Amino acid sequence: MKQYLTVDEWSIIEEGFHPKYNQISESVFSLGNGRMGQRANFEEAFSGETLQGNYVAGVYYPDKTRVGWWKNGYPEYFAKVLNAANWIGIDVKVEGETLDLHKCQVLDFRRELNMREGWLERTYTALLPTGQQVRVKSKRFTSIVDDEVGVIQYSITPINFSGTLTLTPYIDADIKNADSNYNEKFWNEVHQEALATEGYVVAETKKTFFHVCTGQKIVVTQNGQPVEVKAKPTQKAKYIASTFDLAVEQDQETVLYKYAANLSSQNHAKEDLLANTKKVVAAAAQKGFEQMLQQQAQAWAAKWEESDIVIEGDAAAQQGIRFNIFQLNQTYTGEDERLNIGPKGFTGEKYGGTTYWDTEAYCLPFYLATADPQIPRNLLIYRYKHLQKAIENAEKLGFTGGAALYPMVTMNGEECHNEWEITFEEIHRNGAIAHAIHDYIRYTGDDSYLQEYGIEVLVGISRFWAQRVNWSAAKNQYVMLGVTGPNEYENNVNNNWYTSTIATWTLEYTIKALQHVQANWPERYQELVQKLNLQVEKETGQWQHVIDHMYYPEDKELGIFLQQDGFLDKEQTLVKDLPESERPLNQKWSWDRILRSVFIKQADVLQGIYLFEDRYDLDTIRRNYDFYEPRTVHESSLSPCVHSILAAKLGDEERAYEFYLRTARLDLDDYNNDTEDGCHITSMAGTWMSVVQGFGGMRVRDNQLHFNPFIPAGWSSYSFKIRFRGHLLNIKVTKENVQIENQHTNAITLNVFGQPQTIEANAKGEFAHQLV
Ligand code: BGC
Questions:
Q1: Atom number, ligand 1, closest to the C-alpha of residue 602
Q2: What is the pLDDT of residue 163?
Q3: What structural domains does the chain harbor?
């Protein structure tokens, strides 16, 4: 745990230079706009510890798999969103000496990520080894208005000398992923052009042949007036630059504006890429930094208007939740159904920018409640488009007849993961993808999604589950053998309760969904039956048989569901008895010891209870929570939020708050000692869920919103915005009451503390706290 960042409600601030935490800061201060993103690297040279990172959404490379022992069915490669051209680079020489903070004395230093307006600023004074002092202020952002553009305002002022500055703004596409499996570079050069104050590099990914054109245009001012610079273009392999000298006076400010763009062949024809990049860069330069910044601030204000959470009385919690919402909005904007949400977003290479079940299980609820419904819909369509690949994936493993197994990790629908116990066995992801369809329809009411796309995915997944179970003559029931549940600290288990539960839930939901489509869109239903070659009676009959005869491990005496067969055979020690020195277990214990232990990495049975809570009475939920929570080490960032929501449901407000804090400031305080790899973007949505579903007790049932809020002891109030079926609601919870403001022109009926309530258009309802 590190606490070197200043607490501020709207900004992340680092006061003073902390070189040993530089890579953590590079992750935390990251910028993104859904289309591209980058770590907070410095513009000028830096020879200290750094992880360079620039990413263009959807531009990936299949890096050949590296495993010790090959297993049939392993994917050939791991797709990674590539580390792409560095477009921020500006080499600075002061009287011929390179400005490099690692070699300078840094006299003051401040960086700020302004979340309200969406920009990053860094100011410092550096004393060079040669004695000159300069003051630098750089401000930059990736535009959410012009999402192919990034701009930098780089200002430099000599403090104790007059002389010559040499500036070299550049674009470097000669980049290698730090995690390249065979130490290879993944980019080839296609074309480059270097003019006096602008330049372009078109690079191509090997194997996938994406083209990305990165361009820059430079404008320089002194004392606020544009100056003509005599720039000399330079070209090297995959690199262009413009170099120029400037005579500078002591205390005179020189500002270099760098207008940059990244255009990819995903969105432009390859032959137009260069010309289009020139146009985009020219238009940005024409608009100018100040106007772009103003538009950026306005666009962010609009995003906050719909997705902010305001906490009064706890600035650290406020900063934490805003940071989470900010990073989610920087990562995924939802206009492009080919894109998804990597667990680290654009903040690092880990997890390769690929898609995990995190998207459906954790991120979807955030986008459902805070964005236009088209945005979460695009997340579903992403999986719909991968259905054929999921069927092929299942075929590779021996399944037939249109059974679909979605990959554990994917970029384009193909499986990328290569640990057999996860790739082949952590199949609960299939359930999360089916459940997301239900979640989307429950929230938006858009049941037409079923006939358009949803049914096909549900049938594919149901066919998989029906083949993945087998009849046990000994038990006279269906069993599901050789699986890994969400708790990855147990592999290859039989009858994981969560996986079996979500499997039969999928079968039930698919049967209902088919009936719904048949009743409402009979022609489309016939079309789908033909397209899917569905033998309705036979297949749904078989699914029903599985539903009716599935085996779920449980312990009747303890009154709990068992994570899997034999769970109680384990030595029943508790997390509280683990010495701090032995944690995290995944760094301190052998894998063998972890697997045999009772310790649970992340919510597993509790994940199922969270998803299907309406099936269980409070006593059942409490017994399971009381049993599993003391055995859970939460070594996945996805875990505490689920425990927080269940604790809130059980009325354990203190623990609900404790778990919330663990996720809200996970990266700001580097809680898990791994923020340098990138931020935990997908679990940030879990933090949001802890507030809205946990403290706010928000649920959707029978087409209505339900709230059952409490307020954490240390807060004076909190409020959150929710979109729901065309309404925008602001829910504010104070110590005294709950206020729900309907910012829409139609009345809404919802449910507060178990009572139906109607709130008129543009009106506010106030409700006294109640224990329900
Ligand atoms: C978790 C998985 C998760 C993955 C990516 C792992 O540590 O156990 O549930 O999908 O991280 O976030």
A1: 8
A2: 97
A3: 11-302 (2.70.98.40)
- Of all protein residues, the one whose alpha carbon is nearest to atom 1 of ligand 1 is 636
Which atom number of ligand 1 is nearest to the Cα of residue 486? 9
Q: Which amino acid is at 583?
A: R
Instruction: State whether the beta carbon of 101 lies less than 6 angstroms from ligand 1.
Output: no
Pocket lining: 343 vs ligand 1, CB cutoff 6 Å:
yes
Distance 38 CA to ligand 1 centre (A): 22
- Predicted local distance difference test score (pLDDT) of residue 731: 98
Is beta strand 149-158 parallel, antiparallel or unpaired with respect to 133-142? antiparallel
- Which amino acid appears at position 23 of this protein? Q
- Spell 302-323 as b/e; 16+ CB within 10 A means b: ebbeebbbbbeebebbbbbbbb
Residue that has been written with the tokens 């245009």 in this structure: 217
Residue 284 makes CB contacts below 8 A (sequence gap 6+) with 143, 146, 149, 151, 217, 259, 261, 292
Q: Is 293 strand, coil or helix?
A: helix
**Main-chain dihedrals φ then ψ at residue 139, nearest 5 degrees:** -135, 135
Q: What is the pLDDT of residue 332?
A: 96
Q: Are the C-beta atoms of residues 691 and 676 closer than 8 Å to each other? A: no
Single-letter residue type at 419: E
Q: What is the Cα–Cα distance from 386 to 373, expressed in whole angstroms?
A: 21
Looking at this protein, which amino acid is placed at residue 712?
P
Tell how far CA 501 is from the center of its chain. 26
Residue 74 scores a pLDDT above 90: no
CB-ligand 1 contact for 678 (6 Å cutoff): no
Q: Which residues are CB-contacts of 594 (< 8 A; sequence separation ≥ 6)?
A: 489, 585, 586
Beta strands 704-707 and 748-752, pairing class:
parallel
Q: Give bridge partners of residue 218 from the DSSP assignment.
A: 258
Distance of alpha carbon 8 from alpha carbon 504, whole angstroms: 47
User: Are 732 and 718 a contacting pair, CB within 8 Å?
Assistant: yes
**DSSP-derived secondary structure letter, 577:** G
Cβ partners under 8 Å of residue 535, min gap 6: none
Single out the residue of 265, 219, 224 nearest to residue 242, CA to CA. Answer: 219
Burial (CB count <10 Å: 0-12, 13-18, 19+), residue 251: exposed
Query: In this predicted model, what pLDDT tens digit does every residue of 77-136 receive, in sequence order?
Result: 888 889 999 999 999 999 999 999 999 999 999 999 999 999 999 999 999 999 999 999
- Cβ neighbours of residue 532 closer than 8 Å, sequence gap 6 or more: 402, 455, 456, 459
Active site residues: 488
> Residue 579 burial (CB < 10 Å; 0-12/13-18/19+)?
exposed
* 360 Cβ below 6 A of ligand 1: no
Pocket test for ligand 1, best of 78, 358, 430 (most atoms within 8 A of CB): 358
Q: What is the DSSP letter of 360?
A: I
Task: Enumerate residues 6+ apart whose C-beta is below 8 A from 376.
Answer: 334, 364, 367, 368, 440, 443, 444
Token digits of residue 18: 């902390």
What 3-state class would DSSP assign to 528?
helix
Token reading at 580: 């701090």
| pLDDT at 66 > cutoff 90 | no
Protein residue with least CA distance to atom 6, ligand 1: 636
Q: Determine the length of the chain.
A: 772
Return the closest-CA partner of residue 260 out of 226, 300, 213: 213
Is-contact 84 171, C-beta < 8 A? no
Chain position carrying tokens 């907070």 = 40
User: What is the tens place of the pLDDT at every residue in 626-679?
Assistant: 999 999 999 999 999 999 999 999 999 999 999 998 889 999 999 888 999 999
Average of pLDDT values for 176-184?
Answer: 91
Determine how β-strand 11-15 pairs with β-strand 5-6: antiparallel
Burial group, residue 209, by CB count within 10 angstroms (0-12, 13-18, 19+): exposed
